[in-house]
Design brief:
The protein starts with a helix and ends with a helix. The protein has helices spanning 2-11, 25-41, 121-130, 138-151, 162-174, 179-187, 191-203, 218-224, 228-233, 271-276, 293-316; strands at residues 14-18, 46-49, 72-77, 95-100, 111-114, 205-206, 211-216, 246-253, 258-265, 280-281, 285-290. Helix 2 runs antiparallel to helix 4 (138-151). The strands form two sheets. The chain has a six-stranded mixed sheet with strand order 6-7-8-9-11-10. It folds into two domains: 2-186, inorganic pyrophosphatase (n-terminal core); 192-316, Diaminopimelate Epimerase, Chain A, domain 1 (Roll), CATH 3.10.310.30. It has eleven helices and eleven strands. It has 319 residues and is of the alpha/beta class. Adenosine monophosphate binds next to strand 9, strand 10 and strand 11.
């Protein structure tokens, strides 16, 4: 598979690298790292990384202007389904490669490099690069490390295996960079966001079955002076609360006339609930977009029901 990917990259003079809408560090870093590796090794090729950026991640790296390239190869990172690929018309590309760690949704019609067990798309790219003789450098490794650390939520999940730490150790040893500077790029945030986090902690409803949920309305977003995307990303800061097994933020996004539902779990598998509402994601980290708070509350009801079933199974098993 790695050889096939490299062969395909070598074959094309024009390459476009895309990822999912609602950019996050793994999506961004995987596409930028891949772009930079190809540029470093094949300076004669035209390679662009595209998609809507976010001011929050602007200091991580710069995306390229969208432009139409003839006879181009499309590489999509961190995205399992075509409908969520940002700024891409698949019909305009001659070949496609997918590099992803989400549960499989659909075949893009080209090479599919999928590892559901991987912490991140960046990890998969690290492994791919290790199996090639492509030249890399410390800034490329820093990008890959950033995406990996972000998507594994600093190594909190089962994807943090000894193999993963060996992989990281190999890269950090060979291509050192300033780790504290890297964490600043990833985690520095304004006080407003911390204050909003405090608001969420204070106002989250927690049911007796362990479901935590909170609507983050446009009013609240304005009151705290944050943007909707940053508010939606706060979900990742509420892990390891004793009374909460599944937690949900319902973030109003006025600009796109939708409510972003973010769901996390450290108990039952939740992605099938997200899928029921045309969303998706990982077993324990999923999301969906709905139009109204009423619809959002239906998801809450389903998750509460899921937790009731989960708790009774746990009790039946004597745990
Ligand atoms: P989020 O809570 O928005 O960070 O999303 C968590 C996970 O769910 C990510 O892996 C997303 O790819 C996935 N996800 C979020 N929203 C959707 C959606 N509308 N459709 C499919 N997958 C989604």
């Amino acid at each position: 598979m790695y050889k096939k990917i490299l062969k395909m990259i070598k074959r094309y003079d024009a390459i476009v690298i895309a990822r999912h809408i609602g950019v996050d560090p793994d999506a961004l870093c995987s596409q930028l790292a891949l772009r930079d590796v190809i540029r470093l090794n094949f300076p004669e090729k035209k390679v662009i990384a595209i998609g809507t950026g976010s001011a929050k991640f602007a200091h991580i790296g710069k995306l390229d202007k969208l432009e139409k390239l003839d006879h181009a190869l499309l590489i999509v990172t961190d995205t399992p389904d075509k409908r969520r690929v940002d700024s891409v018309d698949f019909s305009q590309f001659s070949s496609v490669i997918k590099i992803d760690h989400h549960p499989f949704v659909e075949d893009f019609g080209g090479i599919e490099l999928i590892d559901e067990k991987a912490s991140s798309a960046c990890e998969i790219i690290m492994k791919f690069l290790m199996h090639t003789k492509l030249q890399i450098n410390s800034s490329i490794v820093e990008l890959l490390y950033m995406g990996l650390v972000s998507d594994s939520n600093r190594f909190l999940f089962d994807s943090s295996t000894p193999e993963l730490f060996s992989l990281i150790s190999y890269y950090l040893d060979k291509y050192p960079f300033d780790l504290s500077d890297c964490y600043q790029k990833l985690y520095m945030r304004p006080l407003n966001e911390v204050r909003l986090e405090g608001y969420i902690a204070l106002h989250m409803t927690v049911t007796e079955h362990g479901l935590g949920y909170i609507p983050i309305t446009n009013e609240i977003i304005h009151e705290y002076g944050v943007d909707s995307a940053s508010a939606g990303n706060m979900i990742n800061n509420f892990n390891f609360i004793k009374e909460v097994l599944v937690w949900v933020t319902m973030t109003e996004d006025i600009k796109n006339n939708q409510i972003r539902i973010s769901i996390r779990s450290r108990g039952p598998v939740i992605n099938h609930v997200a899928e029921k509402y045309h969303g998706g994601g990982h077993k324990f980290a999923s999301g969906a977009r709905v139009k109204t708070m009423e619809e959002a509350m239906k998801i809450i009801d389903d998750l509460e029901q899921l937790l009731i079933e989960y708790q009774s199974e746990v009790t039946d098993n004597g745990n």
